[in-house]
Write a structure and sequence with these properties.
The chain is α+β, with helices and mostly antiparallel strands and about 500 residues long. The chain is built from 15 helices and 16 strands. The strands form six sheets. The chain has a four-stranded antiparallel sheet with strand order 1-2-3-4, with helices on one face. Strands 9-11-12 form a three-stranded antiparallel sheet.
């Protein structure tokens, strides 16, 4: 905006105030007049102007001028300008300066809140069933709450963040979310390859009774290279409600929502593909530990692990736990997409003896492998773990028939580039039956392990009915989505 473009009648300059009427924009620049630490820029624009155009004008022609001045020798070099957003109603009503102080939000803070809200909703869609759920809640619907100011007749109200931010700002957030999901998908696919190699090396890829085809995986997988303009019908239906909501927004925002929705569709595609790959990881982990259809038919928990919370300090220092030492058997929540350690689970106290030492060794080895693959796939296994700390083992058997402790945490296990070399057991079937005999009756598992037996509806995670032991939180999620039935 050059000086020659403005006539003397179109602007007014006072001590702490500038009013400017130029090219369809009415601009007020007002110093706070007290501390001098902020300047309010109010921009009203004519109906011929688009809101996004006005936002771009404000940033590129006004705010950038302030930044350039501050960086110049005549300005305030070294001072960083922080931008905040004023409540639009204050601009429309030209609310007095003294009533606008709490009617602002830092632009950076609003972006942060929007990103966190979108991440939370996207994660919820990742772990809930079915993948194409048709809930009307939009990923873009985060609202900022403006407080009430009685003196200025400003009521408490909410306004969507995407209406307050420039389109490119929201687009940048979506780009970052998409990049993260591309990385997630790549990571899970790499874990799948590692699992396939491990199953092949250990000769478990064709174990009798393990039928990978039972899982509903292929129908979930979306190929992202089939064309950039052709999106699944489920995605189109998903955005019908967004389109309906848009009708209540000013017409100028429609194009913004359409563009952002297209970015969201790509993110949903990535999440669906990642979900399918993760389901395959979970099923192949079952194959790795020898959990067959026979064990599932017997409704046997599939994710046991051991904690040594009761082991003495001397044994922990020596690294060897001898026969007669108490340990605790724990079970993970078997959520299909988010298996995790159950918070403050009591567990079952066992005493290491000649009869169960092979079982405990088998559990230690298998649980270490299970945790390694889950962590590599990005699963948050320690979600709400509380005081339950799983023991990880390299070899598991000492020279005096005791158990060898491995000084390794889950975080350290996650950093390993390859699966720790451990002795394989050829007696998986016998070990699962032995585990069943060690566990309390099904009706008492809930009090010992805080887990409850559920049956997934056919077509959700498997073609046939399937059983799992879930914690209360995961059961509530499943009930909300009507995908399971609680049996015990």
């Amino acid at each position: 905006m050059e000086r020659g473009e403005i006539s003397d009648k179109s602007y007014d300059c006072q001590r702490d105030l500038i009013r400017l009427d130029w090219n369809g924009y009415f601009i007020i620049v007002e110093n706070d007049g007290v501390a001098g630490d902020h300047v309010d820029v109010l921009v009203r624009f004519s109906k011929s102007k688009q809101q996004q155009e006005a936002m771009s004008f404000l940033k590129e022609r006004i705010l950038e001028t302030f930044r350039t001045f501050c960086a110049s020798p005549e300005g305030c070099r070294g001072v960083t300008l922080v931008t905040a957003i004023i409540r639009p109603e204050c601009v429309q009503k030209l609310t007095a300066r003294e009533y606008r102080e709490d009617q602002v939000i830092l632009e950076k803070e609003l972006k942060k809140r929007l990103r966190e809200d979108m991440e939370k909703k996207l994660h919820q869609k990742e772990i809930t069933w079915p993948a194409g759920n048709k809930r009307g809640e939009s990923i873009l619907n985060y609202e900022h709450t403006w407080p009430q100011t009685v003196e200025a007749k400003l009521r408490k109200c909410c306004q969507r963040a995407v209406e307050l931010l420039e389109e490119k700002d929201v687009s940048e957030i979506l780009d970052a979310l998409q990049e993260r999901r591309v990385a997630n998908r790549q990571r899970v696919c790499e874990v799948l390859e590692q699992l396939d190699d491990h199953l092949q090396d250990t000769g478990k890829e064709d174990i009798k009774g393990l039928n990978l085809n039972r899982l509903k995986i292929d129908s979930e997988l979306i190929h992202l290279d089939d064309g950039d303009g052709r999106l699944p019908k489920a995605m189109e239906r998903r955005f019908d409600k967004i389109d309906n909501n848009i009708q209540r927004v000013h017409h100028q925002l429609q194009e913004v929502f359409v563009a952002l929705s297209q970015q969201l569709q790509k993110i949903f595609d990535l999440q669906t593909a990642t979900r399918a790959a993760l389901l395959s990881v979970i099923s192949k982990i079952d194959m790795m530990v020898g959990y067959s259809e026979a064990q599932e038919a017997a409704r046997l928990p599939r994710r046991p692990f051991i904690s040594f919370n009761d082991v003495g300090l001397r044994e922990k220092i020596s690294g060897v736990v001898q026969i007669g030492t108490p340990v605790r058997l724990h079970l993970m929540c078997e959520s299909r997409l988010e298996p995790h350690i159950v918070e403050d689970q009591p567990g079952l106290k066992l005493i290491i003896g000649d009869q169960n030492k092979e079982l405990l060794r088998w559990i230690l080895v298998n649980s270490t492998k299970v945790f390694w693959f889950l962590l590599k796939a990005g699963v948050q296994v320690t979600l709400g773990a509380g005081s339950v700390i799983p023991e990880l083992a390299h070899h598991s058997l000492g020279s005096k028939a005791g158990l060898v402790l491995a000084d390794m945490t889950l975080e350290e296990l996650k950093t390993l580039g390859s699966l720790p070399v451990m002795e394989e057991s050829q007696m998986a079937e016998e070990m699962w039956m032995f585990l069943k005999n060690q566990l309390p009756p099904e009706k008492k598992i809930s009090s010992t392990f805080k887990l409850y037996l559920v049956k997934y509806n056919p077509g959700m995670v498997a073609v046939e009915e399937s059983y799992a032991w879930l914690c209360e939180k995961c059961i509530e999620k499943g009930k909300k989505n009507n995908v399971l039935k609680v049996l015990l």
